[in-house]
């Protein structure tokens, strides 16, 4: 769906000046360009000429070329999913390695697909073997391996970490549903405003991941409040897509302002509590050192 431009030079004359207390659009601290595009999309296009090679050269060539096409498309899909999984891994300070190494599997399937295509074209074994090794190696060099170890989990209670991971995954699903719903509204400014709130929400997610003990204090924010925000976003998108109701837009923007302020306040409170815990631990350690006669000079 085409989106209506809403800048200050548009016919509607809406200003891009941010509301008091909000961040300017385009300055989102967590915004990063996704790697699951560009080169990965080319992987879906590159094997398509095999369709023409498959027909007109007999049943053996048909089967081999179509099998090669399937393997290369599967490799492209695995690579894209692997890049998405790695972006989620990199975005978190505490994360498990992907359960299945998709990018490495994509490298293997790329080599196998090229080998089958080479065998269909030459009938020999040397050329397919070369295609297999070089194709898999170049794919691995281009996209890299998957993360092969857990991150930030040394000395962490795994039970608590699993609880946090499930809660954050559920919260991310709510944010994804909000983004998908907002696309139907076709309003660029409100999409940017929603992105801004989601950045603030993810700050809270990262804070809880860094200290799983904070989950109890943040549980309502990750579930109840985000679920309500998701439902409100879906209703707003449906109404605004049909009527472009200015009052509904203003009410929804006010809701995002309230949500952002509350999520930011909860994040600051958790960070303050963590700092207080650190201060207490430092004071306790200093007292113990003094009792044992260990002092700094």
From TrEMBL:
InterPro entries: ChloroindolylP_hydrolase (IPR018770). The chain crosses the membrane at residues 36-55, 61-79, 100-119. This is 5-bromo-4-chloroindolyl phosphate hydrolysis protein. Residues 1-30 are annotated as: Disordered. Keywords: Membrane, Transmembrane, Transmembrane helix. Pfam families: Halogen_Hydrol.
């Amino acid at each position: 769906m085409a989106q209506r431009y809403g800048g200050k030079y548009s016919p509607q004359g809406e200003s891009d000046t941010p509301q008091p207390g909000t961040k300017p659009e385009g300055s989102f601290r967590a915004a990063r360009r996704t790697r699951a595009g560009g080169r990965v999309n080319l992987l879906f296009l590159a094997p398509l000429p095999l369709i023409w090679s498959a027909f007109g050269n007999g049943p053996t060539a048909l089967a081999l070329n179509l099998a090669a096409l399937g393997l290369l498309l599967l490799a492209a899909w695995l690579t894209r999913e692997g890049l998405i999984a790695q972006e989620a891994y990199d975005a978190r300070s505490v994360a498990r390695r992907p359960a299945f190494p998709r990018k490495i599997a994509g490298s293997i399937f790329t080599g196998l697909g090229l080998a089958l295509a080479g065998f269909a074209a030459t009938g020999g074994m040397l050329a397919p073997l070369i295609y297999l090794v070089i194709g898999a190696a170049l794919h691995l060099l281009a996209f890299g391996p998957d993360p092969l170890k857990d991150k930030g989990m040394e000395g962490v209670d795994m039970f608590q970490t699993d609880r946090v991971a499930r809660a954050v995954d559920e919260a991310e699903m709510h944010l994804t549903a909000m983004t998908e719903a907002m696309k139907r509204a076709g309003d660029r400014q409100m999409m940017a405003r929603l992105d801004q709130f989601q950045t603030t929400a993810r700050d809270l997610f990262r804070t809880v991941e860094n200290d799983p003990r904070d989950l109890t204090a943040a549980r309502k924010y990750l579930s109840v409040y985000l679920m309500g925000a998701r439902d409100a976003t879906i209703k707003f998108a449906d109404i605004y897509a049909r009527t472009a109701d200015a009052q509904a837009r203003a009410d929804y923007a006010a809701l995002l302002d309230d949500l952002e302020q509350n999520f930011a306040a909860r994040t600051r409170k958790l960070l303050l509590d963590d700092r207080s815990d650190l201060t207490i631990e430092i004071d306790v350690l200093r007292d113990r050192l003094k009792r044992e006669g260990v002092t700094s000079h």
